[in-house]
Specification:
The protein is α/β, with parallel strands linked by helices and 489 residues long. 36% of the residues lie in helices and 20% in strands. The strands form 5 sheets. A 7-stranded mixed β-sheet has the order 8-7-16-17-18-15-19. Helix 1 runs parallel beside helix 2 (60-68), helix 1 (10-21) packs parallel to helix 10 and helix 7 (170-178) packs antiparallel against helix 8 (181-188). The longest helix has 22 residues, at 117-138. The radius of gyration is 22 Å and the shape is globular.
């Protein structure tokens, strides 16, 4: 079977591996000159930066790709579990390390915040329970096919819906479980993993800490970009062909079926099409004459990001690979994001891969990936926002760490909603497609297939099950499963 994949983001790469491993003829078309989409890298003045995702969880989904290709993952892709997931900082000089080991983490919380260890352990146990009850249903299966809902295990899980906290916000669940405002804030921040608001998002999202504190947070050998490199090389080894600088202009339809694509004004026939393009642009640009799923395409978008990549001429032993410097008023910060604005006191995330890979920065220096959450692009004055936010971020870091940060910044690059969209085709620069602020959000994402166009499938962060590396990889797995059950028409 001849298969065209539109886009070489991580979901497109995973689809290429799965399809090619089954003996299909696979062509991947990518508008950029490189694979990986957001999961790319660059170097500036001796500093290496991962451009996009900085946290690696659920590594088994990458391992599965090598297994699907009949290979031993450990021989081709290596990673290590981080002993400390993240270091947290507050303006009052409270500092806390979130150890991967939940008992150590709970002890740290008791020592630093005065919260009984048992409260955090109960919260993490609740996170695990929700994932085991619902995770494999909502994340690993299509929610838009009858065979999912006719499955006995799914039917049993549906009887336990009241236990999922779907009708309670994430913040309300965390307040109920741990009470302490700083610990609630810490647990609320997991909503940002899919660009959502913890004061609006359903309590089911409290499953996310399970990924870090039971399964673990990991770091791939060579940095996050090595995920792209490894999966790209694997797809090539199985026979997938890659066409770079080759934007697809149209998905060709005949009698309600996808029969090919148009590239460089040339039509090329394929039996099936898998789109890794943001679903909004896939319809508006590649399928302008097809029925448009307007309700889905007009849903509330997720947040975006403003990222400063700084080469810093000093080492900071108090910082770890992942670090969070919290705002004073978290709810206000999210209220402003919902209004399309950026707080004057944003929560700051700092990722430093040179903590684990010394070659990522010159000796005695560190490569800082400094990010704040910002709204999607709705025409704001981004130049003014970037300038103001840069000043505020530098002031915040300088206060909390007791340094004069401007004196230490050797080089700088910036990524923001406009450039995120231009480089990755993420509609309005939203990092995760639609938000998960609605309790029915899991059911409102675009399916992994088209109900109206035969032989057309969708993967990536803008469709089910959502954004982030693990979920993008799962979208490819879901499409593989659907295609296995659905002969080409």
């Amino acid at each position: 079977m001849k298969i065209a994949i539109i886009g070489a983001g991580i979901a497109g790469l995973a689809s290429a591996v799965r399809m090619a491993s089954k003996g299909h003829s696979v062509d991947v078309y990518e508008a950029n000159a490189y694979p990986g989409g957001k999961l790319s890298q660059f170097e500036v003045q001796g500093y290496r930066f991962d451009a996009g995702p900085s946290l690696f969880t659920m590594p088994q989904y990458v391992d599965e790709l090598f297994q699907a290709a009949g290979l031993n993952p450990a021989e081709h892709f290596r990673y290590q579990r981080l002993p400390i997931v993240c270091n947290y900082f507050w303006e009052d000089q409270t500092r806390l390390s979130a150890y991967a080991n939940e008992t150590e983490f709970a002890h740290e919380v008791e020592q630093k915040l005065g919260v009984e260890a048992s409260k955090l352990l109960r919260s993490l146990a609740d996170s695990r329970r929700k994932y085991e009850l619902s995770g494999r249903i909502f994340l690993e299966k299509s929610l838009h096919r009858w065979d999912t809902w006719l499955n006995l295990s799914v039917a049993k899980a549906m009887l336990k819906i009241p236990q999922f906290d779907l009708f309670t916000s994430m913040n309300q669940v965390n307040e109920r479980m741990v009470q302490h405002p700083k610990l609630v804030q810490l647990l609320n921040r997991f909503a940002t993993y899919n660009g959502s608001n913890p004061y609006k998002a359903p309590g089911l999202l409290t499953i996310i800490p399970h990924f870090e504190h039971h399964i673990g947070a990991f770091y791939p050998e060579g940095g996050m970009h090595s995920i792209t490199q490894s999966v790209y090389a694997l797809a090539q080894s199985k026979g997938a062909r890659f066409h770079f600088n080759a934007p697809v202009e149209e998905i060709v339809l005949e009698k309600g079926r996808a029969v090919g694509i148009k590239v460089n004004q040339e039509k090329r026939h394929y039996d099936r099409i898998i789109s890794n393009m943001d679903v909004f642009h896939a319809y508006r640009r590649l399928l302008p004459h097809a029925p448009q799923p307007e309700k889905i395409l007009r849903q509330e978008k997720s947040t975006s990001a403003l990222i400063f990549y700084w080469g810093v001429q000093r080492e900071f032993p108090e910082l770890n690979m992942h670090n969070i410097l919290f705002s004073e008023d978290y709810r206000h910060e999210f209220d402003l994001l919902s209004q399309g604005q950026v707080s004057d006191d944003p929560t700051v995330y700092i990722n430093i891969t040179s903590k684990h890979t010394q070659g990522d920065a010159p000796p005695g220096c560190e490569n800082w990936f400094v990010m704040i959450n910002v709204p999607f692009n709705a025409g704001q004055d981004w130049d003014a926002i970037i300038a103001r936010s840069r000043t505020q971020i530098i002031a915040k870091i300088s206060r909390i760490l007791g340094v004069t940060l401007p004196d230490l910044i050797a080089c700088e690059e910036i990524l923001e909603p406009r450039s995120i969209e231009s480089k990755t085709w993420s509609h309005l620069g939203a990092l995760y497609g639609t938000s998960s602020n609605d309790r029915m959000a899991a059911f409102m994402r675009h399916p992994n297939f088209s109900a109206k166009i035969k032989n057309l499938y969708f993967v990536g962060g803008s469709v089910h099950p959502g954004g982030g590396i693990p979920l993008c990889l799962l979208s490819a797995k879901i499409v593989d499963d659907i295609m296995e059950k659905s002969p080409a028409l």
